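Note to self: user wants both folds in one dump. Writing first protein now.
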Amino acid sequence: MDRATEHERPAKRVKRDGTEAASTPPPSSHGNEDLDMEESGFVPDNNAAHGSDLYLDTVNRVTLDFDFEKVCSVSLSNINVYGCLVCGTYFQGRGRNSYAYAHSIHDDHHVFMNLETTKVYVLPDGYAVSDPSLEDIAFVLSPSFSRSGVALLSTAAHLSKPSYDLSSKPYTSGYIGLNNIKRNDHMNVIIHSLLHVPPLRDFLLLSRFGGKQPELVKRFATLAKKLWNPRLFKSQVSPHEFLQEVGRASGGKFRLETQGDPVEFLRWLLNELHRDLGGTKRNNSSIIFSTFQGKVRTETQQVVVRPDAENHKPVFDIDREIKATTSPFLFLAVDLPPPPLFQDAVEKNIIPQVGIHTVLAKYDGINTQESRGQLRRFNCQQLPPYLIIHYKRFTKNNFVEEKNPTVVNFPLKGVDFRDYLSSAEEHPPPAYDLIANVIHESVAGTTRDKENTVWKVQLRAGSGENEKWFQIQDLIVEEIRKEMIFLGETVIQIWERQKPTVES
């Protein structure tokens, strides 16, 4: 079905009056006039020999790329845009005075698809084409998913059926590369992480957003469907269309050409999606809150300095007033212990390590922190189905931003968080499994070097004995051994609450 564009093509169709269809007026300079044949008063010659198979051999799937913004290549309008299925260029309208019409004559390219409806037309004649051989193109442009198919994406069955692109290269949908257009790798790892959280992923894959939905939500759903598409022409996806909208919606805070912080992007994206999906302050008012929102209790007490306690750490005094507040959270931030300031010749290459429960002790309701004359202690009242943890690896001072190289040790399954819950007996079983791990890599040293920073994400695939882990860095996708996962400088993790076992 794929033929190179240079293959010999059929001659242009000739109208019944003997005049060549190419003898038409030039396109309007405005590009938005006569967008449709019917509006321009041009009626296709429906009595002519049907050309369903006349130009379809000129369609070149290798040139088709629907990952970029769907705007006319001439007028830059996003209204009524058609894609040339021969060269992949976008044009506005298909009437006599449209750019697509002129392109069909001047470049001898005749098959066009409406990028919104996926309907196909042959120009300049203007008749619609309905041919099963074009269905794969429509599916790449606008993938669709069934509930039964979506239910298999987190199972071992999904891994057992690889997909193949046009070059017969095998790939596993969902675990494919995202193009690093300029310096957007810090956003790529967040996109991957969120689109592998089953409730959010399934919600986006099954969505049918209309014209009234905010553009950010629609483009994120479109990107999710492309990432999980089992029928891609290329085994990679570009997030360009989504990230263009991110730049607009964030007022330029997150840009393609600037290296940024994935934690800041995650915080912004979660809140923006929640708001765009109609979320409020109420619990479970959006898929974001129902998936990621928990509650933490904070107790605060003023520090009282006593002369006899000069070298003693301030502690809570139960005889004085303690103020308690409960706040929602979308992820928990934890501090890493400071690395040793000096090391001897033997230990200079040793990287400090710490267990996950050591850093999470901040939320046990016992340990205290002192800040600005106040003592604080934290305790979780409710943990979400999917818990996001941010390890605060970077700290700023007046001169540089320092990096803490401490490695966090953690098991992949069954991490028990009951010690950080105020009422563990009233909470669903607080055992969690890791599903996504974002790591930071840079040149050696203790300062943050954004120019030489690399962000990678490690993702769980499948379940049970057939479980695998993939590491993705932009377009590089490779399977990784489980034992290697905790060795990186973890910055963000997403944990999935274990489902309670059903007793027989």
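First done. Writing the second protein, which came from a different request thread.
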Amino acid sequence: MHDMESLPVPSVQAMVAATGGAHVPPRYLRPEVAADAVASEGEAAIPIIDFERLLLEEEAAAAAAASCRVESARLHAACQEWGFFQLINHGVPDDVIQGMKANIEAFFGLPAETKQQFAQERGQLEGYGQLFVVSEDQKLDWADILYLNTQPPEHRNTRFWPDKPDTLRSTLDAYSAAVKTVADRLLAIMSSNLGLPPEVVASRCSGGGMQSVRINYYPPCAEADKVVGFSPHSDADLLTLVLQVNQVQGLQVKRQDGTWVPVRPLDGAFVVNVGDILQIFTNGRYRSIEHRAVINAESARLSVAAFHSPNIHATIGPLLTVTDGGPPELHEALLLCQAGGQELLATDEARS
């Protein structure tokens, strides 16, 4: 992964602090954004899925099992029709969620020179900065990020894990483990919904699979309609779980008609989306959807995305072929394999 480094660029947060954000440098100007159609309030919304109901099947009560089947069907439909949903009652302890939010806000509140202690180094994706800046004339996103490998623990490079604030490392450790448990259980339920054994996806993640996090800081911009916080993209992983850190919205999902639908995160919920590998695994039944982040004119937005991927030696190909009226069959067409494919994946996943 020696060729993955980005060219260094200024911190947008520091630039806004110095200038008040009134002037947008040309490299950030994206005039095409203003022309895009955006759905109005109440026009459309991504589905809401109740994780507690999905887990009720383990109980004996017939009513609970029926409620679980209804929720599983809603999850199945959300993955096919939207590729996105909000997950409520996910069971990650509130103190872990609130601790994560507080530590992220505190990190981005540190002096610029302190944050620079954790800056990306040549040949590294991990660290504080910006990803995939490959030319001096490339258009830039209006954001600063901290990107880290989090699971399994032996994949971590603690050189880039901030020790300021002093609770960030322990909080991220607890948060990453709890979120991975949720993702693993969701993937098992999705496998069952597709008519496959629940462990099929997990078997491609033998050894537990991989998780990385991208912590995003989107500064305010006086000309918010002329910049983009995160360029349109789909995620390269299996499943992404996003935590909205503060109350400022910005995530938008692209519908088939080209309209962008704003996501209004519920307090305490995760925004979950299907990634490219899950679309491949499901042979296109579940959809990896283009999305982006837009900027607020007055307030910064913070979020943390946790990406979940197969392990580095996994074979990536459809697990599913649908026969005429019959049950789905396992299918092993090889699309991405082992180190080469995973290196491309790692590059693209950090982008997602």
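Dump finished. Worth passing along: The longest strand covers residues 210-218.
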